[in-house]
């Protein structure tokens, strides 16, 4: 007597007119599947006599149910910065809706991202990875791309095969610089993050473009870079205060850094915005409720995180590669840049 051919998830997918990954999602009760699709797949499973047990479900979906988050700096620095906390909140929201748990890297030193990434992958700890930043010649991106491991980035890269979500940082910096120029500022300084970060490069590009269009020469002595922390802002605030003539405008890459610079200006009795107008990025609570409310770009960090998680789920479950999402931003003009 011939043995009956074993029914597979591929057979169910063919009958239902869906992809095998959709069948896997139905099997794992993934909330991303619509109710009509779920009913159709379940009906086909019943007609074909396909009833996967727990082990079969695990094999069908081939996953740990966990995704890794690579934090770009030490844990202490990470949780002190409102941007990272807010973007992580978005990731958590997306992970919850998709049925995934999160595994956060616990870097003790800067520059350990690749080491942690390899540990996650080689130890089969996660099904995919989210990189919280993108660097120029990023080793993590190259490693994950070369082994075709599912991942997404919060940031930008010129590689069209990478899943990425970001703002138009060049345009945002251009518009912010243009705003300062429109209120009469001509010597505009800028504090960005690490020069190896793609976001720093793009914001400098927008800043330079606005200066050029206004026939203002770019002065490299007015461009500063450093860590995303309050101390960096304070130290550069003191340094800027010693420049003669004093810059009459300042654009800062992060509210936390701007908060430090403003504190330095206040300690040195430099008036904001009369002596120097200050504008920043992230529109965090620091910007809204500081002694002098800061003009700031809301980059929608929550949505950046949520969409990065959604892209990663697509990469894991549908093998999607090369998707790019641009999150809109808003500039909130406050007292720190009043003309």
TrEMBL record:
CDD domains: HTH_LacI, PBP1_MalR-like. Residues 7-61 form the HTH lacI-type domain. GO terms for molecular function: DNA-binding transcription factor activity; transcription cis-regulatory region binding. Keywords: DNA-binding, Transcription, Transcription regulation. InterPro entries: HTH_LacI, LacI/GalR-like_sensor, Lambda_DNA-bd_dom_sf, Peripla_BP_I. The keyword Transferase does not apply. PROSITE patterns: HTH_LACI_2 (PS50932). The keyword DNA-binding applies. SUPFAM superfamilies: lambda repressor-like DNA-binding domains (SSF47413), Periplasmic binding protein-like I (SSF53822). Gene3D superfamilies: 3.40.50.2300, lambda repressor-like DNA-binding domains. It holds the Pfam family LacI. This is LacI family transcriptional regulator. The lineage of its organism: Bacteria, Bacillati, Bacillota, Tissierellia, Tissierellales.
């Amino acid at each position: 007597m011939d043995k009956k051919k074993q029914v597979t998830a591929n057979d169910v997918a063919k009958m239902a007119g869906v992809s095998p990954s959709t069948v896997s999602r139905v099997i794992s009760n993934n909330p991303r599947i619509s109710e009509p699709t779920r009913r159709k797949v379940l009906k086909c499973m019943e007609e074909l006599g396909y009833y996967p047990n727990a082990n079969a479900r695990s094999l069908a979906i081939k996953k740990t149910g966990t995704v890794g988050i690579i934090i770009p700096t030490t844990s202490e620095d990470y949780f002190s910065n409102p941007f990272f906390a807010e973007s992580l909140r978005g990731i958590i929201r997306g992970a919850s809706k998709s049925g995934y748990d999160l595994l956060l890297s616990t870097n003790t030193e800067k520059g350990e991202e690749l080491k942690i990434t390899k540990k996650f992958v080689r130890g089969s700890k996660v099904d995919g990875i989210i990189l919280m930043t993108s660097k120029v010649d990023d080793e993590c991106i190259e490693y994950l791309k070369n082994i075709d491991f599912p991942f997404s980035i919060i940031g930008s890269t010129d590689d069209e095969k990478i899943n990425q979500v970001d703002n138009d940082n060049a345009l945002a910096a251009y518009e912010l610089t243009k705003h300062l120029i429109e209120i009469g500022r001509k010597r505009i300084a800028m504090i960005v993050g690490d020069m190896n970060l793609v976001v720093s490069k793009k914001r400098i590009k927008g800043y330079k473009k606005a200066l050029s269009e206004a026939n203002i020469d770019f002065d490299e002595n007015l461009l500063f870079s450093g860590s995303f922390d309050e101390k960096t802002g304070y130290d550069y605030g003191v340094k800027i205060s010693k420049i003669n003539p004093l810059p009459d405008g300042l654009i800062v890459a992060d509210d936390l850094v701007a908060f430090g610079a403003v504190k330095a200006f206040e300690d040195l009795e430099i008036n904001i915005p009369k002596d120097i107008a200050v504008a920043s990025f992230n529109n965090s609570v620091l910007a809204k409720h500081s002694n002098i409310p800061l003009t700031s770009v809301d980059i929608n960090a929550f949505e950046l995180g949520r969409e990065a998680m959604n892209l990663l789920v697509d990469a894991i479950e549908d093998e999607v590669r090369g998707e790019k999402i641009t999150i809109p931003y808003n500039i909130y003009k406050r007292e720190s840049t009043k003309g």
